Q: What sequence folds into this?
């Protein structure tokens, strides 16, 4: 089997670590408190390096709201903040635990390479 | 982003989506920088919303019966085109009889145009309506297929 040791040098290109799962990123952003769209885009950029487009963001917001994982608050000067629901927190915790488990196992397997 | 541009971008979304998210989405776009990347993202998302709509939050899912679906232009145009094609074939047979000509003639070309022209409309109808209302859309597709087969039947039967 070929080793990936020389194929993908660690941290060689920030784009390689790009992660985009808009609903999960929105949930993670709202875990620190209610935010409106613009604040979510900036926060997601700062925590993951992923800059969501406005269309992608609202696609995720609509689906999360439909699932009852986030809920709208009263608008503030046309900007509507959203907050994560208790069900959303439960889902976020479960998804992040799985991700952490995968990341831990994956990084451990990369160690000898 | 400029107000005229944001209004135009929001207009790309389906009406029901705009009623629920339009105002706050426009406010978000006004906060964003001008450039090409974000308008492209919005246009793509609006197209996706037309094909696979979300019925989030307070948006009410509309009633989509057979009657509602069949009244869509992309539903009845192919049926009408097939029926016109059938009328052309039957009219040609009534006037000139079953004649096997070397040159296909205007009626044959018109029939071919009507049959081929409905294919993209049928594809659009299926892509747009099957995810929204699968059962009524399947009935309309069956009706469209029936009309197309009816217009093809005399051509195949008389080997025109």
A:
């Amino acid at each position: 089997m070929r080793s990936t040791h020389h194929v993908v040098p660690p941290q060689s290109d920030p784009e390689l670590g790009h992660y985009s799962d808009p609903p999960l990123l929105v949930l993670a952003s709202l875990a620190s408190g209610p935010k409106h769209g613009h604040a979510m885009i900036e926060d997601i950029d700062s925590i993951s390096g992923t800059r969501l487009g406005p269309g992608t963001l609202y696609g995720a917001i609509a689906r999360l709201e439909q699932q009852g994982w986030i809920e709208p608050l009263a608008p503030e000067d046309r900007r509507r903040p959203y907050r994560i629901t208790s069900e959303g927190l439960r889902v976020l915790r479960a998804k992040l635990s799985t991700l952490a488990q995968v990341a831990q196992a994956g990084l451990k397997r990369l160690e000898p390479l | 982003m400029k107000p005229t541009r944001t209004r135009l971008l929001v207009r790309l979304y389906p009406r029901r989506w705009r009623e629920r998210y339009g105002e706050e989405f426009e406010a978000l776009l006004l906060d964003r920088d001008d450039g090409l990347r974000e308008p492209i993202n919005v246009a793509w998302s609006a197209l996706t919303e037309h094909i696979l709509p979300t019925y989030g939050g307070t948006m009410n899912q509309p009633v989509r019966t057979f009657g509602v679906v069949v009244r869509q232009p992309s539903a009845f145009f192919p049926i009408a085109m097939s029926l016109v094609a059938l009328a052309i074939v039957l009219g040609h047979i009534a006037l000139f009889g079953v004649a096997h000509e070397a040159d296909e003639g205007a009626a044959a070309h018109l029939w071919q145009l009507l049959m081929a022209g409905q294919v993209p409309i049928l594809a659009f109808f299926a892509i747009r309506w099957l995810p929204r209302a699968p059962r009524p859309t399947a009935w309309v597709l069956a009706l469209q297929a029936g009309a197309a087969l009816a217009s093809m039947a005399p051509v195949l039967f008389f080997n025109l």
